[in-house]
Amino acid sequence: MTQTLLLQNLPSVLCGLVLGPQPGESVLDMCAAPGGKTTHLATLMDDKGLLVALDRAESRLSRVRALCDLWGLSCVRAHAHDANDYQGLRATVQDLPERFDRVLLDAPCSGLGQRPLLVCRQTAGQLRSYPPQQRALLDTAVRLLKPGGTLVYSTCTLTTSENEAIVAWALARFSELRLVPQEPHLGGVGRAGAGLDDDQRHLVQRFEGQQVWPESQDYNVDTIGFFIACFRKAE
């Protein structure tokens, strides 16, 4: 990392590009630390508009602030606060919007897509604890998204229960949400058997790491395990 270059995994970069924030918009990064995606969003916005970056731990959020300071980004307002209590934050901080044009939920997850990961030390109970957290955050994200707005949900894990099953749950719960095509779309299709039909599985991006890719591809998708879904909220 330097003042001119911040390296990220390919899927992490895609999150910002798929969300597509524009200068002057209001954007929410619900789980912002350590700040790589936050700074990418701010640069895509040309540092114009408002980008609210949240994380529950002040120690983690300090890294977000440090990155923004390093890059001279002024559109970011970082707060150590639980995104599920956003209205509580609005009660104590002035000039925060009620809803946002775009929301990024890079959700807490089991992290099983990280590499190298030679040993998994998480228990079955710990793995089961993530989907309820993800559903709660996604419920909040939908409520904080303006009609017509864009929501990106992402994880760095491989489990169907934290990815396709969460997307299927959201589509069933929120009639105003629909999956939309992603650009760029470099990942594979979603897994079957979690409630998504074939069309929906082709709208999400799943990265599971691959050693061989088509010679016609000018990019290498042998990256960390990752999942991206993009929703649009009806007007």
Automatic annotation (TrEMBL):
Which InterPro entries does the annotation name?
A: MeTrfase_RsmB-F_NOP2_cat, MeTrfase_RsmB-F_NOP2_dom, RCMT, RsmB/NOL1/NOP2-like_CS, SAM-dependent_MTases_sf
Catalytic site: 156
Keyword field: Methyltransferase, RNA-binding, S-adenosyl-L-methionine, Signal, Transferase
Q: Which residues form a coiled coil?
A: none
Give all residue intervals belonging to the SAM-dependent MTase RsmB/NOP-type domain: 1-234
Gene Ontology molecular function: any one: RNA binding
> Could you tell me the Gene Ontology terms of the biological process aspect for this record?
RNA methylation
Leader sequence segment: 1-15
The UniProt similarity line reads: Belongs to the class I-like SAM-binding methyltransferase superfamily. RsmB/NOP family.
This chain belongs to the protein called: Putative trna and rrna cytosine-c5-methylase nucleolar protein nol1/nop2
Organism of derivation:
Ixodes ricinus (Common tick)
